[in-house]
Amino acid sequence: MNRSDDLCHVLTEDHHELRQLLVELNHLTASEPLWRSLADLLIAEMTRHSVAEESYLYPVVRDRVPEGRRLVDEYLAEHEKLERMVKILERHDLPGPELSRLVARLDTEVRAHMRAEEEELFPMLIEHLGAEERAALGRKAAAAKKEASMRQRLPDHPVLKAIIATGAGLIERVRGHLRGRAYPR
Protein backbone atom coordinates (compact mmCIF):
# COMPACT_ATOMS: atom_id res chain seq x y z
CA MET A 1 0.00 0.00 0.00
CA ASN A 2 1.18 3.49 -0.88
CA ARG A 3 0.54 6.02 1.92
CA SER A 4 -0.54 8.60 -0.66
CA ASP A 5 -3.44 6.30 -1.63
CA ASP A 6 -4.97 6.48 1.86
CA LEU A 7 -8.36 8.20 1.75
CA CYS A 8 -7.44 10.46 4.66
CA HIS A 9 -4.24 11.50 2.86
CA VAL A 10 -6.04 12.12 -0.45
CA LEU A 11 -8.62 14.33 1.26
CA THR A 12 -6.01 16.12 3.40
CA GLU A 13 -4.06 16.96 0.25
CA ASP A 14 -7.26 18.46 -1.15
CA HIS A 15 -7.57 20.51 2.02
CA HIS A 16 -4.04 21.88 1.48
CA GLU A 17 -4.96 22.86 -2.08
CA LEU A 18 -8.19 24.53 -0.98
CA ARG A 19 -6.40 26.46 1.77
CA GLN A 20 -3.84 27.62 -0.80
CA LEU A 21 -6.54 28.84 -3.17
CA LEU A 22 -8.26 30.71 -0.35
CA VAL A 23 -4.99 32.40 0.63
CA GLU A 24 -4.44 33.47 -2.96
CA LEU A 25 -8.00 34.78 -3.34
CA ASN A 26 -7.71 36.74 -0.10
CA HIS A 27 -4.56 38.45 -1.43
CA LEU A 28 -6.22 39.65 -4.62
CA THR A 29 -9.06 42.07 -5.19
CA ALA A 30 -12.14 40.93 -7.07
CA SER A 31 -11.38 43.46 -9.82
CA GLU A 32 -8.11 41.74 -10.77
CA PRO A 33 -8.48 39.39 -13.79
CA LEU A 34 -6.76 36.49 -12.02
CA TRP A 35 -9.28 36.70 -9.17
CA ARG A 36 -12.19 35.30 -11.24
CA SER A 37 -10.02 32.48 -12.60
CA LEU A 38 -8.94 31.51 -9.08
CA ALA A 39 -12.51 31.79 -7.79
CA ASP A 40 -13.71 29.48 -10.57
CA LEU A 41 -10.88 27.06 -9.79
CA LEU A 42 -11.82 27.14 -6.09
CA ILE A 43 -15.44 26.40 -6.96
CA ALA A 44 -14.44 23.45 -9.17
CA GLU A 45 -12.00 22.05 -6.59
CA MET A 46 -14.50 22.40 -3.74
CA THR A 47 -17.13 20.66 -5.83
CA ARG A 48 -14.86 17.75 -6.74
CA HIS A 49 -13.71 17.45 -3.14
CA SER A 50 -17.28 17.44 -1.80
CA VAL A 51 -18.30 14.75 -4.28
CA ALA A 52 -15.33 12.60 -3.21
CA GLU A 53 -16.23 12.99 0.47
CA GLU A 54 -19.91 12.33 -0.08
CA SER A 55 -19.20 9.29 -2.25
CA TYR A 56 -16.35 7.63 -0.37
CA LEU A 57 -15.78 9.13 3.09
CA TYR A 58 -19.24 9.71 4.49
CA PRO A 59 -20.80 6.35 3.56
CA VAL A 60 -18.04 4.41 5.31
CA VAL A 61 -18.11 6.74 8.34
CA ARG A 62 -21.87 6.29 8.54
CA ASP A 63 -21.54 2.50 8.47
CA ARG A 64 -18.37 1.84 10.46
CA VAL A 65 -17.80 4.64 12.99
CA PRO A 66 -19.77 4.82 16.25
CA GLU A 67 -22.20 7.75 16.02
CA GLY A 68 -21.32 7.82 12.32
CA ARG A 69 -24.83 8.58 11.12
CA ARG A 70 -25.07 11.66 13.37
CA LEU A 71 -21.59 12.86 12.39
CA VAL A 72 -22.25 12.46 8.68
CA ASP A 73 -25.53 14.36 8.97
CA GLU A 74 -23.65 17.25 10.60
CA TYR A 75 -20.95 17.27 7.93
CA LEU A 76 -23.53 17.09 5.13
CA ALA A 77 -25.34 20.08 6.64
CA GLU A 78 -22.03 21.96 6.54
CA HIS A 79 -21.58 20.94 2.89
CA GLU A 80 -25.00 22.37 2.07
CA LYS A 81 -24.12 25.64 3.81
CA LEU A 82 -20.82 25.87 1.92
CA GLU A 83 -22.54 25.03 -1.36
CA ARG A 84 -24.97 27.93 -0.89
CA MET A 85 -22.01 30.26 -0.37
CA VAL A 86 -20.20 28.89 -3.43
CA LYS A 87 -23.30 29.44 -5.58
CA ILE A 88 -23.19 33.11 -4.61
CA LEU A 89 -19.47 33.20 -5.43
CA GLU A 90 -20.29 31.91 -8.93
CA ARG A 91 -22.28 35.04 -9.70
CA HIS A 92 -20.55 37.60 -11.87
CA ASP A 93 -22.75 40.54 -10.92
CA LEU A 94 -21.71 41.08 -7.30
CA PRO A 95 -19.69 44.17 -6.38
CA GLY A 96 -16.06 43.66 -5.35
CA PRO A 97 -16.48 44.45 -1.65
CA GLU A 98 -19.34 41.96 -1.36
CA LEU A 99 -17.24 39.28 -3.06
CA SER A 100 -14.33 40.00 -0.70
CA ARG A 101 -16.58 39.61 2.35
CA LEU A 102 -18.01 36.39 0.92
CA VAL A 103 -14.54 34.93 0.33
CA ALA A 104 -13.47 35.88 3.87
CA ARG A 105 -16.57 34.18 5.31
CA LEU A 106 -16.12 31.17 3.05
CA ASP A 107 -12.47 30.95 4.14
CA THR A 108 -13.49 30.84 7.81
CA GLU A 109 -16.22 28.23 7.24
CA VAL A 110 -14.13 25.99 4.96
CA ARG A 111 -11.14 26.03 7.32
CA ALA A 112 -13.34 25.09 10.31
CA HIS A 113 -14.92 22.25 8.32
CA MET A 114 -11.56 20.89 7.17
CA ARG A 115 -10.03 21.18 10.64
CA ALA A 116 -12.95 19.22 12.13
CA GLU A 117 -12.53 16.49 9.54
CA GLU A 118 -8.77 16.26 10.02
CA GLU A 119 -8.90 16.34 13.82
CA GLU A 120 -12.11 14.42 14.49
CA LEU A 121 -13.30 12.39 11.54
CA PHE A 122 -10.06 11.13 9.99
CA PRO A 123 -8.67 9.73 13.28
CA MET A 124 -11.98 7.90 13.82
CA LEU A 125 -11.79 6.48 10.31
CA ILE A 126 -8.20 5.33 10.88
CA GLU A 127 -9.29 3.65 14.11
CA HIS A 128 -12.21 1.79 12.55
CA LEU A 129 -10.99 1.02 9.04
CA GLY A 130 -7.92 -0.91 7.92
CA ALA A 131 -5.12 0.60 5.88
CA GLU A 132 -5.89 -1.46 2.77
CA GLU A 133 -9.53 -0.46 2.81
CA ARG A 134 -8.62 3.22 3.24
CA ALA A 135 -6.17 2.90 0.34
CA ALA A 136 -8.80 1.35 -1.92
CA LEU A 137 -11.22 4.15 -1.05
CA GLY A 138 -8.50 6.75 -1.58
CA ARG A 139 -7.76 5.43 -5.07
CA LYS A 140 -11.47 5.51 -5.92
CA ALA A 141 -11.85 9.06 -4.58
CA ALA A 142 -8.81 10.27 -6.54
CA ALA A 143 -10.13 8.64 -9.73
CA ALA A 144 -13.59 10.16 -9.23
CA LYS A 145 -12.12 13.63 -8.74
CA LYS A 146 -10.02 13.27 -11.86
CA GLU A 147 -13.05 12.10 -13.80
CA ALA A 148 -15.05 15.12 -12.62
CA SER A 149 -12.47 17.53 -14.04
CA MET A 150 -13.95 20.77 -15.27
CA ARG A 151 -11.98 20.62 -18.52
CA GLN A 152 -13.46 17.25 -19.43
CA ARG A 153 -16.92 18.79 -19.58
CA LEU A 154 -16.07 21.36 -22.25
CA PRO A 155 -17.80 21.29 -25.61
CA ASP A 156 -15.70 19.62 -28.26
CA HIS A 157 -14.34 22.79 -29.82
CA PRO A 158 -10.54 22.82 -30.32
CA VAL A 159 -10.11 26.62 -30.09
CA LEU A 160 -12.14 26.88 -26.88
CA LYS A 161 -10.24 23.98 -25.33
CA ALA A 162 -6.89 25.51 -26.33
CA ILE A 163 -7.76 28.89 -24.82
CA ILE A 164 -8.97 27.41 -21.56
CA ALA A 165 -6.07 24.96 -21.36
CA THR A 166 -3.61 27.84 -21.85
CA GLY A 167 -5.25 29.86 -19.07
CA ALA A 168 -5.34 26.87 -16.76
CA GLY A 169 -1.70 26.19 -17.51
CA LEU A 170 -0.80 29.75 -16.51
CA ILE A 171 -2.77 29.50 -13.27
CA GLU A 172 -1.16 26.17 -12.46
CA ARG A 173 2.32 27.62 -13.14
CA VAL A 174 1.64 30.65 -10.93
CA ARG A 175 0.24 28.45 -8.17
CA GLY A 176 3.22 26.11 -8.45
CA HIS A 177 5.61 29.04 -8.15
CA LEU A 178 3.79 30.47 -5.14
CA ARG A 179 3.49 27.09 -3.47
CA GLY A 180 7.19 26.37 -3.93
CA ARG A 181 8.48 29.72 -2.73
CA ALA A 182 5.93 31.52 -0.61
CA TYR A 183 3.85 28.75 0.90
CA PRO A 184 6.07 25.83 1.90
CA ARG A 185 4.34 23.01 3.72
TrEMBL record:
Residues 9-125 form the Hemerythrin-like domain. InterPro entries: Hemerythrin-like (IPR012312). Pfam families: Hemerythrin (PF01814). It comes from the Bacteria. Gene3D superfamilies: nmb1532 protein domain like. PANTHER family: HHE DOMAIN PROTEIN (AFU_ORTHOLOGUE AFUA_4G00730). This is Hemerythrin domain-containing protein. It comes from Actinoallomurus liliacearum.
